[in-house]
Amino acid sequence: MKKLLTLLFVAFCAMGLNAQEKSLYEELSGVKKKTDKFNLYMNMNGSFDAMFNDNGFDYGKFNMRQLRIEAKGNVNEWLSYRWRQRLNRPNNGGDNIDNLPTSIDIAGIGVKLGDKFSIFAGKQCAAYGGFEFDANPIEIYEYSDMIEYMNNFMTGINIGYDFMEGQQLNFQVLNSLNGDFYSMYGNFGLEKDIFGNDVIVATPSKLPLVYTLNWNGNFANVYKTRWSASLMSQAEGKNLYYFALGNELTLGKFNMYLDFMYSNDAIDRGGIVTNIVGTQNGHNILDASYFSIVTKLNYRFAEKWNVFVKGMYETASIEGGEQRHYNSEDNVTRIIRPGQYRTSLGYLGGIEYYPMESNLHFFLTYVGRHYIYNEARVNKADYSTNRVSVGFIYQLPMF
To answer: Do the beta carbons of residue 183 and residue 102 sit within 8 Å?
Structure first.
């Protein structure tokens, strides 16, 4: 197996040694593209993955982790557009509140209003901040739990203000849902109080929106920021608060980012804590909170070679008072107490080879995760997962 992985890695590298940065259209037709009105890309992240758990080797498989098609361009000096869709996700969602399938990440137009103001209207990525979150998904070998369980492609409007060179503020208003309330949070139905009476836990919001203020800063291409604060209406009288502080430092061949993220969910939007405590309906834990620290360090030790390490530290907790959840399956009311329920650790390392001036690169990487449960809160055993992957990442310019 080691010899096979080595041969695959070398073969992938050799494929692009003499390639030039041209679109597939230019390579096949020999005609140089002379317009920026239409650009078509295929975003790919594919690999062979060897999976391990606490008992040793589990299984191996070829995996196309990311496959997206993207079109964007500038119609004129003030009007642009962008569309991106995931090809390895079902194209459903006719009943979604924005009438768009969830496979579409981005679909909208950009309008430039002078030198300082800009607008993007349509489906888009929430401007949540942080450099892991801001990266092209094909570049991520393993997301933090916070982002992996986040629902972040929604429809609305973003207003950008370049208040000085290298400094931009964004104010964004998006739908907080794709489908309806119950498809996002599950059927809350009725819970039981301490006396066995029916209690309505939550009712859908009449304005299910998320509001985000984002600061993107650039200080001489040495230090950059992706900071944000968000308020989301989850249900009537129940809000989610999200904060992200993303920081990036570049010093010659060395680059790193450090992200801090915190979320306080009146309703457990990601469902991590709900899944840990094992209550009904997927998201019905109230006052869930999550905290994440993510850092990645890169060193371009040669023109075409890069090494990296990445670390993640995350906690999943319940705040507020004691909760009682009635489970109709076993006719038992569970008492859920506040506190920290899980700590998760992530550790990655790898090497990348860039044969061309474009972002095509071949990689060999290790990904490890370790989950630690609070024995005083939940009866679950700690466990670890490990993965070794060899593959390629490429934003292929097709036209």
So the answer is: no
